[in-house]
Each structure stands twice: as C-alpha cells, then as structure tokens.
C-alpha cells in the first residue's frame, strides 16, 4: 500500500487541483478542506489523525452501511474481475437484471420497470424525460412539456434537475434554466412563509397544486415532482392528507406524480421507501445514494408497465447506465440490509434516537423544534421562540463545528442541524451523538449570551 501524504501535502493538492462545489472559497481557504484518510464502521479519521463518528451518512446521507464493508467490496471486485461493464441500451449483465428484479419487489404498488443511472441528478433527468415522452407517445397529452415543483426543493444539479430545484446555491447563476417549470409552496414544519399552523399550511400547499395545474393548463402539465420528505431546513415530514390530496389532483388532471426518493430510499426513514409511510404509489420514482449504501455511483428510475410500454423508443441514454459492477454493489447492499434486518433496526433505533433528542433539546431556549423519521433527524433553531425567527448569523454552523470538536459529524441545513446516521449505528453511538449535540447547543448558546 502506498504511503498516505501528510496533511500539508494533501491540503496543497486540494488547493492546487480541486474545485469545491457549493462551498465559500474564502472560508475553505481560511479553514482548509476536510480530508479523510481512514474509516471503519461509522468512524472517520481525517488527515490530522482525528477520529469522529459520522452521523451524516458521509455528508450526503448516502452511506447507510458504514465504512469498510468487505462484503460489498468483494462483490464489486468479483464482478470487475469477471464482466465489469458491457455498455448500455439493450446490453445487460446478470447483476443489473437481478437488481431490476429486486427493485420491482421492493418498490411500492405497481412500480416494476427500471432504467439505471449514475446518480440522483441523472435519475431526476431520466424521470422528467420519461414523463414528457409518455404524455406525448400515449396520446394523452401530446403538448405536455411543463413540470411543477416546490419552493425549497432540491432535485439535482444537472440542467433539467436544476430547473425543478429551488434549494442550495446551485441555480441562480445558471438562469435562464430549462423552460416549462413552475414552483408552488411546500409543506414546512415549525415555520412557513405565511405564519400558518402546520396542517393548515400543508392543506394550502396541496390546494395550490390544483390551482397551478389550472393556471398552467392541464393539457400542458406533464408531471409534478416532490420528495416525500423534503430536506430543506431539515426533515420536513408532511401530514398524511397532503400526499392524499396531491395524488388526487395528479389523477384528476392526468399529471404524472414523480416521487424523488434519492435521499429517502433504502431505509433512511425506517421503511424501504418513504412513500410507504403515506401509502403513496408514485407513477415514477427516483432513487440513488443508499441504493448502493454509497459504495458505488448508481441510481435508478422505476415506473409501471403502462408508462414504459407506451414508449416505443425512449430517447435517453447514459454511458454507465446499469453498470454491472455498480449493480453488484447495490445487490450486496440490499442483501445485507435484508439479511441483517437493518431497515427495521433503523426504524427502531431511529425512534429512540428522536425521542432522546427531543427529551434533551426540545425545551431548550434556542431550539424551536426537533423532528424526524427513522434514521433522519434535525434540530431546528430559533433566535426568538415567540416569533419563530431564525438565526441570521452563523449560530447553527457554530453548533455543528462544536459537535465536530467533540467528535460527532452533523451538518447545518438552513435553519437547522441535521443527523442521518448509517443504519448500523448502535444505540450507544446514537446516545453519544445526542449527548454531544445537547452539550454543543448549550455551550454555543452560553458563549453567545443566548
């Protein structure tokens, strides 16, 4: 094994040769990039030799099985040593076909037919194209080219996915985006733009979808896309009635419902897919991230027979779609989760994790709300609990930095901090994360006179 360069050399290489996406270059230059050199289980060691527990699933929430899983590595090695890649279009390898069959088994309702991609943005691009082409080829809506999304949505950084995105600093400089996309209010917990109670606001958001379809012209709207649980400002779990009404309006106006499970799929929320919490059957569903537990870049889109069969020639292709070695990683990850009961364990341990976070922080003077589902929780902060005003400074980021100082990796997301531990995190590790989170909140609040 080659010797790992020292921290200064790694930092020089990063500054000389890398671009840092969605990061303030000034801050990166001042603080330096975070460089990891070793990992095991849910522990990550950086180039300075400091080890922390990763409670963010490798920052992107993709890492659902922790680090150093030799079973997945062996599956990829064996596939790469046999048939590593056979191309795309009508070329398949055995693990890709096996993965397609497993996705049909796990996905909600009649979802059965898959197209593979290299990740989440590509999956969203594929879903948008699939919806538009279905509407045209089926003859139902030959002129339907519009898609409706939501405020604070994040669906990816490629141009099509970017056009249905309204979250993170990834879109403004690229205006104008792909035409034909509009946005409606999104259901939010704790605070919303209209100051309404949560359930009333969610009802308004659902009703707004019907009004937007009518405004755009039902004959021109191909699809509505939404995450079942939105990430913006931390784990926005809508009430059941919201998705019931969205499904109702999509059916009423012949609008395909695309549910984006790139983050929420494969156990993150305590079920295989978050749609299950709402009894929701999408028309098209996207996935990636934990599909391979973060061990390989792979994503997928799944739909039902009626939609796939209406398209004689799907005008879309990716070079590495259905890559055999990446499919082997996904098959191994799914097998491990099934064999070891990790989705059920995530639901059970996640419920305790959330209860402990709520008990430790729910009444804190700068905490507005603790919320979450499965192994995905956030602490949303308020500078003024009476008005629910968010912090306008770096208080949330400072708390996350303090947690890192104390050995726990979390992430700031808008007004909240978020934790999305791997499904293998033990109750003891989760309890440690709760203790560190509570201690860090109190320390920063006291130091700042809050």
Report on the architecture of this protein.
Strands 4-10-9-8-7-5-6 form a seven-stranded mixed beta sheet, sandwiched between helices. Helices cover 39% and strands 15% of the residues. Helix 8 packs parallel to helix 9 (240-253). The protein is α/β, with parallel strands linked by helices and 450 residues long. It has 14 helices and 15 strands. The protein starts with 6 loop residues before the first helix and ends with a helix.
Number of strands: 15
Q: Tell me the radius of gyration.
A: 22 Å
Number of domain units: 2
CATH architecture of the largest domain: 3-Layer(aba) Sandwich
Main traits of this protein?
15% strand; single chain; 14 helices; 4-stranded mixed beta sheet; 2 domains; Aspartate Aminotransferase, domain 2; 450 residues; alpha/beta
SSE blueprint:
Blueprint: H1 7-17, H2 25-31, E1 36-40, E2 43-46, E3 51-54, H3 57-61, H4 70-80, H5 94-106, E4 113-117, H6 120-137, E5 146-150, H7 159-162, E6 181-184, H8 198-216, E7 221-226, H9 240-253, E8 256-260, E9 284-287, E10 299-303, H10 305-309, H11 324-339, H12 342-361, E11 367-373, E12 376-381, H13 395-405, E13 408-409, E14 411-413, E15 416-419, H14 427-447
Parallel strand pairs: 3-13, 5-6, 5-7, 7-8, 8-9
Antiparallel strand pairs: 1-2, 2-3, 4-10, 9-10, 11-12, 12-15, 14-15
Helix pairs in contact: 4-11, 5-11, 8-9, 12-14, 13-14
